[in-house]
Fold:
Amino acid sequence: MRVRVLRGSIVVSILLAGLLGTALTAWGQEADLDEFKNNLAPNVGSPEQAIDRMLEAAKLKPGETLYDLGCGDARILIAAAKRYKVKGVGIEISSRLAKVAAANVADEGLDKRIKIIHGDFMRVDLSPANVVTLYLATSANDTLRPNLEHYLKPNTRVVSYDYPIAGWTPIATSATEGHYGDTHTIYLYEVPNSINKK
Ligand SMILES: C[S@@+](CC[C@H](N)C(=O)[O-])C[C@H]1O[C@@H](n2cnc3c(N)ncnc32)[C@H](O)[C@@H]1O
Structure:
């Protein structure tokens, strides 16, 4: 009887320690998330015509999962979910924009298909993605590249508006119009073919 009680309390202690550990990890990440220090690109939303071309380039299939890294107001995710019946995950470091994104997703009735994470995309497991969209900056793509190489599984497509990923080879490029009618490039990559071996 005493052995059974002892065993029971050991199990409860292990469970409590596990729960506390999980809570502390999450709390710790939130606590040192610096919206300014960890911000790798300014907020400029992709123009509508660029979103159309990016999503065409990605060749999304229904049921696939799209990650938009630095999702802003979630415009890419919403367009993709409506047109291509995909699921979406948006990661946004600005708490203001993450709230706007979540509200936009809810307004469209898409909250079951699109998840918005307020956080740093450098701390997120990207392995569930079939497609990743980027509209960041050259230096941000440099910082992100090791994570893309670490997490993305074969056949994942990465579509970057305006900024190439240095050291990768695109499988296609296309031109699109920017906010002011000027020409911008869309880079399409595919893992692992685009990753240049050293
Ligand atoms: C140029 S905007 C692109 C917004 C959206 N993807 C679009 O195309 O409309 C870049 C976004 O990345 C966000 N961002 C920058 N660094 C980030 C980071 N480390 N983690 C998550 N979001 C980040 C910025 O706050 C900004 O909203």
